[in-house]
Amino acid sequence: MVTIARSVDIAIVGGGIVGASCAYFLADRGAGALLLESGRVGREASGVNAGGVRQQARALPEMPLALRSLELWPELDKRLDARLGYERCGDLRIVETAPDAEKLRGVAAREREAGLSLEWVEGTALRALAPALSSRTLGGTFCPTGGQANPLLVAPTFGRRAQDLGAIVWEGCPVRSLRRDGTGFALETANGRVRATRVVLAAGAWTPLLAAGLGLRVAISLFVPQMTATVPLPRVLGTVLLGFSRKLSMKQMRGGAVLIGGGKRGRGDLVTRARGPAEENMRLAALDAVEVLPVLGGAETTRSWVGLEGLTPDEMPIIDHVDGVHVAAASPSDPWWGGSSPSGCSTASRR
């Protein structure tokens, strides 16, 4: 006879910011939640991204969720009794050619129609926001509500506070299989079998492997973004920089280090979990960074790293439910929104 290690109302698979915050908000509402994480909470994609909290440069169906996050982020330090490094410093999406400027103006017009506050800046206004920008930068869109937080702190804090409210958190507990069992679900885990009434799949790039056991096809592939950090520098950036044609993002942390990211890919494998930066892409990212911010030309770097993330064909998150299975995964590069779900994002489907 198989021993049932635990019976719960809701089992959440994946301890990134999505899964950990889900456990927190469910526990806050009195639901019986179990958070299952194969490693440590917040140590995969949610802990190794660049920490951007942005609303611009997103697909329009994502905008309701991005705007909803604006209500949540300023309250989180108080709500979670922690300092998460959140700073609403704004973000600036820049262009360097006239054709790109025309395209970005069109994008900005559609984002404004969706409810986002954006300002076109050039000349003196542009230099006031980012004095260190290269002279080749023509202009950009400034979003005052964009910002950043510390990715090493956010998901682990949600996990701890979820426990404080009564949620169960199992770290170092991979889910080996997941199947339907009568009116609920049976999960075989490293800690034994779990019986759950409902399941939340928030395992990022690993979500399709779990969903397959339930007869669901989830269109998520592996994406391996890489980041590089410089040594601490004098203040050169007061806002987050986003590229338009360039795959580039840059932000300066409170300690002075500049983080360079934006989507250039490293190497990684889901099965072995092996990962590492791709040398040529590191070189190209550094070249982009120096062309945009020439002051970085002599800056030494301290480290480079990658994350194993999930990516959908349309690069939007999957937020959906099918017969008691809730899927919340593949928040590309910035899984940093908050606790409500928009309609119109990608979906999971039956096989």
CATH superfamily heading of the largest domain: FAD/NAD(P)-binding domain
Spatial gap, N to C terminus: 31 Å
User: Could you say what the CATH architecture of the largest domain is?
Assistant: 3-Layer(bba) Sandwich
- How helix-rich are the residues, as a percent range? 25-40%
What does the main sheet amount to? 8 strands, mixed
Low-confidence stretches: 333-351
- Enumerate how many helices there are, as a single number: 8
What is the strand content?
Answer: 25-35%
Mean pLDDT: 91
What does this structure look like?
- With 351 residues, the chain is of the alpha+beta class.
- It has 2 domains: 4-69 and 151-219 and 314-346, FAD/NAD(P)-binding domain, CATH 3.50.50; 91-144 and 225-306, D-Amino Acid Oxidase, Chain A, domain 2 (2-Layer Sandwich), CATH 3.30.9.10.
- Helix content is 26%, strand content 30%.
- It is built from 8 helices and 24 strands.
- It has helices at 17-28, 45-48, 63-80, 98-113, 123-129, 151-164, 207-212, 279-292, and strands spanning 4-13, 33-36, 52-53, 91-95, 119-122, 139-143, 147-148, 168-170, 175-181, 184-189, 192-201, 216-217, 221-223, 226-230, 240-243, 249-252, 258-261, 267-268, 275-276, 301-306, 309-311, 318-322, 325-329, 349-350.
- Strands 1, 2, 8, 9, 10, 11, 22 and 23 form an 8-stranded mixed sheet that branches.
- Helix 1 (17-28) runs parallel beside helix 6.
- The longest helix is centred in the first third of the chain and has 18 residues, at 63-80.
